[in-house]
Specification:
Length: 619
């Protein structure tokens, strides 16, 4: 497993540039949110604006109330007249106005919350779909690369919630910015210095927050192989397909201990970071509080000396308090945006992963009917030292069958992966009907191939859909399910199942039925038969789990239906291999013998020796 190295810290002079450079994803996140729902985005913007301006209006009305009260009290004392609704109305109308403003703020905030929650759901779905759509365009080699897999896991784990987080914070920043500007308008009349003091007081917390979010992100990125191991252990310890073995071999304590150890390491790192982050946050936050109380004292002294009215004092205190809260909220938003941007860089790194060109556009070869040719094909897996296939040449014509024989790891499955274009040869070329596979339109090519891999997928879907998966165009075609199942010998047992072809398979869903290995293999074989248009049938150990009678029936069916199809078979059972027109014996990625059964037996080489070895076992 390769480890993603933590990003090196930028040189000192570049720190600021690196900090702001990180914000480049903000615009893309905003576009994404806009595309998700214009109405909700506009609604968010409107509520943000309202919730931003109204607090300053409330503070201003507060001043009017206090000054009106002071004036009314003086008037009342002078005239000694009794209180009437008319005489108190000049004060009460401000109280009424303030109540209205507060109600409007509450409404705007509810609106914000509602729209955010709707957008969160829509956006989460959109990003997840983007991640999965991208996964469909990537090559098998990319999935097998641990570094790429890390990117995918990180993108899926964190990034789907980040775009909205970023947009929310952008709006919160705007809202607080508007509040601050409107408070600023009120404060300017008191003193520009006061504004300066409040801003300076809040800056240190902001710098420390930004630094620690960067650290947290680097930690998150650097440790993703460990988190992946944790997720893997969770799966092994709690999934039905592994629990059988885990129990019987008594692996729980061992795996659980490994799981705990990973957590302890990660927790230690988290704890250190959290403690440092929060203690610095507290200490630097004190500076902000100090600045606020300094300004508070100043306003009080000015009021006592008579420079400010009581109403003005009330307003300034409110403005200071709310202004300071808005300022630190803005700074937290900015450092949060910085953090979201860092995480979004994961998502976009993944989405921008280069996609290998899908090859050509041929739907017909230069020599139709020529079949499959391998010309001196060699292949080395990415990152591997030695080639898995070397100098392989073969020809398989329509109506013929070819069997591959060889020890474990000799390269048989690799050859199939090249033929199905899951990988491309590193040397030589593969031709279908006289044209290089790379020139073929990949969909046309794949439609011509029906394949069963050794590790075929057991979909937790209906039985019929497990067959339909072999041909997406007939995914729900019951008549075709049945035809394929009959050929794959699955029809008899499917009929005895409680819901017939509509029975749910697997244990994940209610009422799901589990099948035996041999029954699953029949399903896989029937799935390969679903591809009616396929003229290349690739079978990698198609009957390994079947009983002897089923196996014999399967091969009898092959011979009968072969006609103009090409069959490529991998099997360790010589009883099935012997019937092939051509047999290739592969060793260490190279073809060491070739011919039909009779000629290979006559050669008396590796094939003949292995055949006799197996035949002896049956005597
Ligand atoms: N995805 C992969 N990445 C790197 N190396 C691989 C990969 N898959 C297989 N190999 C290596 O390539 C070689 C050939 O493997 P392959 O699966 O083709 O063997 P096989 O002949 O089908 O074996 P078996 O009979 O066990 O199915 C092996 O040495 C294996 O370790």
């Amino acid at each position: 497993m390769r480890r993603t190295s933590p990003a090196p810290p930028p040189p000192n002079g570049n720190r600021l540039a690196a900090f702001f450079g990180v914000f480049r994803y903000s615009r893309r996140a905003l576009t994404l949110v806009w595309q998700t729902s214009r109405a909700l985005t506009l609604g968010l913007a409107a509520c943000t604006l309202i919730a931003g301006v109204l607090p300053a209006v409330a503070a201003w009305i507060g001043q009017l109330i206090v000054d009106a009260v002071v004036a009314a009290m003086a008037h009342h004392q002078q005239t000694g007249a009794s209180l009437t609704l008319e005489s108190t109305w000049p004060v009460l109308r401000y109280v009424l106005a303030e109540a209205g403003v507060i109600a409007a703020i509450a409404l705007a905030q509810r609106g914000l919350a509602a729209q955010q929650s709707l957008l969160r759901a829509l956006l989460g779905q959109k990003v997840n779909v983007m991640i999965l759509e991208k996964a469909g365009t990537l090559s098998l080699a990319q999935f097998e690369d641990s570094e790429f897999y890390d990117k995918l896991t990180r993108a899926r784990r964190e990034a789907s919630t980040r775009p909205l987080g970023l947009v929310n914070k952008t709006f919160a920043l705007l809202q607080n910015g508007i509040s601050l500007a409107s408070f600023g308008v009120l404060l300017v009349q008191f003193s520009l210095w006061a504004i300066g003091i409040l801003v300076l007081g809040a800056l240190p917390v902001f710098v420390s927050e930004a630094k620690f979010s960067g650290d947290a992100f680097r930690l998150f990125r650097w440790r993703s192989p460990q988190t992946r191991m944790q997720m893997y252990l969770e799966t092994v310890l709690a999934r039905e397909d592994s629990i059988k073995e885990v129990k019987l071999f008594g692996l729980e304590p061992l795996l659980l201990e490994r799981y705990r150890r990973i957590f302890d390491t990660l927790y230690g790192e988290d704890r250190r970071l959290t403690l440092r982050r929060e203690s610095w946050g507290f200490l630097l936050g004190l500076l902000g509080t100090l600045a606020f109380y300094g300004a508070y004292a100043w306003v009080v002294v000015e009021t006592v000396s008579g420079t400010l009215t009581l109403g003005e004092m009330t307003m300034y205190l409110m403005v200071f308090k709310q202004g300071q809260a808005a300022l630190s909220a803005s700074l937290t938003s900015i450092s949060g945006m910085y953090e979201d941007n860092l995480y979004l860089s994961n998502l976009y790194e993944y989405l921008e992963q280069p996609v290998a060109p899908q090859g050509g556009s041929l739907t017909q070869g230069a020599k139709p009917g020529d079949g499959i040719r391998f010309e001196r094909v060699g292949f080395t897996y990415p990152g591997a030292d030695a080639p898995a296939l070397r100098d392989v040449s073969l020809h398989l014509a329509p109506g013929h069958s070819l069997a591959l024989v060889g020890a474990n790891g000799s390269g048989k499955t690799t050859l199939i992966k090249l033929l199905t274009r899951l990988y491309e040869p590193s040397e030589g070329r593969i031709l279908l009907d006289g044209s290089d596979l790379r020139e073929w339109d990949v969909h046309t090519l794949r439609r011509r191939i029906g394949v069963i891999f050794q590790d075929f997928v057991r979909y937790q879907l209906k039985v019929g859909e497990n067959l339909g998966a072999g041909d997406v165009e007939a995914f729900a075609d019951e008549a075709r399910w049945q035809e394929a199942a009959e050929r794959g010998l699955a029809d008899t047992f499917i009929r005895t199942m409680p819901g017939g072809y509509h029975t749910q398979l697997g244990r994940w869903f209610k009422g799901g039925q589990e099948l035996s290995s041999g029954q699953w293999q029949k399903i896989a074989l029937a799935r390969a038969y679903m591809r009616e248009s396929a003229d290349i049938l690739v079978l990698d150990e198609p009957t390994a789990a079947m009983d002897a009678a089923a196996e014999a029936a399967v091969y009898a069916d092959f011979r009968e239906h072969r006609r103009d199809k090409m069959t490529l078979l991998i099997s360790h059972r010589f009883s099935t291999v012997r019937a092939a027109d051509q047999i290739l014996v592969i060793d260490g990625g190279e073809v060491i013998e070739r011919g039909d059964h009779a000629s290979l037996m006559a050669q008396n080489g590796r094939y003949a020796r292995l055949f006799r070895l197996q035949a002896e076992g049956y005597r």
